[in-house]
Amino acid sequence: MISFKDAYQKVLDLSQDLGNELVSLEQAMGRILAEDIIADRNFPPFNRATKDGIAINYDAIEKGQTTFKIEGILAAGMPSQLLKNTANCIEIMTGAVVPSNADTVVMYEHIVIDDGWASLIKNPVQGQDIHLNGSDQKKGNLVLEKNSIISAAEIGVLAAVGKASVLVRTLPKVAIVSTGNELVEVDEIPLPHQIRKSNIHTLYSALSQEGIVPSKLHLPDEKDSIKNTLGNTLKVNNAVLLSGGVSKGKFDFIPQVMEELGVEKIFHGVFQRPGKPFWFGIQKETKTVVFSFPGNPVSTFANYNVYFKDWLKLSLGLPLQKIDVILKEAAEVKGDLTMLLRVKLGFNRGHLVVSLVKENGSGDLCSLVNTDGFIVLEPKSEPYEVGELVPFVPTRDLL
Amino acid sequence: MISFKDAYQKVLDLSQDLGNELVSLEQAMGRILAEDIIADRNFPPFNRATKDGIAINYDAIEKGQTTFKIEGILAAGMPSQLLKNTANCIEIMTGAVVPSNADTVVMYEHIVIDDGWASLIKNPVQGQDIHLNGSDQKKGNLVLEKNSIISAAEIGVLAAVGKASVLVRTLPKVAIVSTGNELVEVDEIPLPHQIRKSNIHTLYSALSQEGIVPSKLHLPDEKDSIKNTLGNTLKVNNAVLLSGGVSKGKFDFIPQVMEELGVEKIFHGVFQRPGKPFWFGIQKETKTVVFSFPGNPVSTFANYNVYFKDWLKLSLGLPLQKIDVILKEAAEVKGDLTMLLRVKLGFNRGHLVVSLVKENGSGDLCSLVNTDGFIVLEPKSEPYEVGELVPFVPTRDLL
């Protein structure tokens, strides 16, 4: 048994660099960028009209000219053209290249066009309505940093600089393993002493949100079978997540099997609730880490969110985001266990406020439906007070 | 031209009920539940041991008994058994059914076992370490409400009650359409007057995060071709998102083509920046809505996040989440335009604090990389002050 803080640190210490891989732009969403992205040309790459109207040379205005002969028309996608005469104008559309001997765009709303001539009805400001070549970014600038999370905004930038394929961090190969003879499949009618599998589905869907498609298996409470299957699973995965099989029961063979398979126990048992019988280890030979979570649904769910997700973030080169929230009600944590308490989050006038979820212990799966995350409270003699800041681990998308 | 507030309301007014569809549990993640979910049995369905140890009848303790003959062993997944003699005990594992004539579990840590007898080394409390039949939920209880977002926690509950397939809200069919002769593909080297497509990739990835796989097309700035293609697209989609082609340029045929296709214009032009030339309409016959966004990357991105995402939420039966954030710096909004300002969000001691992103107008795609969302500021004569609460629209996953 070790403290929560030590257990958490030991898990993070075994994060892994899984290397990089090339994916297509369409597959890059949500992945972690593994290369710096440089502007391959200026942003914008030319003096770009930002309004529809006419392009003129401001010198003519300064000479008192207010009516301009229209030389032609420039649409977006047309090669650049010069004004033949800088006392004339050219009609120009948003996105088109402004002639290099023009310097000002006047939008249609500020001119009157009659018989091939444009007359100003409002005086322009020199240089207006032109998005200047290189004014956002210069060619060679760093536009996206390595280790960025690729969201829709980053996809746009990657497209603009021509990255049809992108180097991203490789995701770990993960297996999820359920154990326990009492478990039946979702589409079965359980006998009175049986229950349906749920943890493995929870883990599968949680991992799928991280872009990971885990392999799934179920082990009976039978030692030889566990050993054979786990041996192979350890070889082909970077992380194995087990649910159940780690308490002190006669049929909980996992810790013993792990030892026989050369998986070094890092710890077994953490001073926390829920999730106390958590077993964590690493197979030195393969560097595969094993998260063996207690089988109670809330225990597995809490440990996945608190330990595994930060292990994953570190393994992908991401910083760990530490978020504090404000207690809406007092909470008492006595004894020697760090408490992971289920809370509901409210956005209250720019404040993150949490209230405790009514629950019935670590077997109470349904309480997780009302839960937005866990607050992590160390035991202390005085109660945590209303308004106090406490660390928060989200368990669903909240913002 | 209409106000931002009116435009926003008109978009919401045309949200659509797209009906429901059945998906497998594995495909249900992130979807919106379209049925109430009822517990098909009690949670837990039997008196369930929550520790490994022995099950006893507390009467024996009350009679002063401290040593118990072990009758046998009960593992999880074994049918229920009775104590043959309530003065005896039975070894029991976590998850197993507690005999109906036992009422207390004593964990291994609190007993000594010797030659078929278990002796207490700590007095138990009657009823301890049993997760009582139906104590979390009774059969027939509502465990998940219609219109819930299905996250990993909900997946676990759906699995537990045997929902191998789940009724969810149908997602809209969406087409995304780019226009503009200046655009080339991501893997092409643009000529000096050309730029690569980026908006369509941004929209594609943003929609993919909502579980929508949009169809993609590109229209040249040529009227007949636009009309043919759009006509078909309107028939087979619930929403069409266009980028570019709605300003006042000579080659911006979209509004005219829309009219010819029987798409009723709801509005064209909103008193907002960026995204002012936004065109919105509906084809009455098909009920397909058309979001025609201005082509500047920031305009398209802002309007997608501000208008389309809430249209989508309402169409899926979700409530609109209104979040206010705290200004870290003053902001001035004069004139008659509602400003959508790019901001970076910080989690500061339980407070959501935003600072303005340095940017160079609505063409400045790269500024979106530093942007976590937009704040929506109505024009007013006094500046918005430090510490003031303002509405926030996130543009990436933040919590």
UniProtKB/TrEMBL annotation, chains A, B:
Q: Which reaction does it catalyse?
A: adenylyl-molybdopterin + molybdate = Mo-molybdopterin + AMP + H(+)
According to its UniProt entry, the function of this protein is described as: Catalyzes the insertion of molybdate into adenylated molybdopterin with the concomitant release of AMP.
- State the pathway, as annotated in the record: Cofactor biosynthesis; molybdopterin biosynthesis
Q: Which InterPro entries match?
A: MoaB/Mog-like_dom_sf, MoaB/Mog_dom, MoeA-like, MoeA_C_domain_IV, MoeA_C_domain_IV_sf, MoeA_linker/N, MoeA_linker/N_sf
Q: Which residues form the MoaB/Mog domain?
A: 175-315
Pfam families from the UniProt entry: MoCF_biosynth (PF00994), MoeA_C (PF03454), MoeA_N (PF03453)
Concerning its family, UniProt says:
Belongs to the MoeA family.
PANTHER family hit by this protein: GEPHYRIN, MOLYBDOPTERIN BIOSYNTHESIS PROTEIN
The lineage is: Bacteria, Pseudomonadati, Bacteroidota, Flavobacteriia, Flavobacteriales
Know the name of this protein? Molybdopterin molybdenumtransferase
| Cofactors demanded by this protein | Mg(2+)
Q: CDD domains recorded for this chain?
A: MoeA
Kindly state which keywords UniProt assigns to this record, in alphabetical order.
Answer: Magnesium, Metal-binding, Molybdenum, Molybdenum cofactor biosynthesis, Transferase
* UniProt-listed Enzyme Commission number(s): 2.10.1.1
Q: Which domain of life is it from?
A: Bacteria
Q: Which residues cross the membrane?
A: none
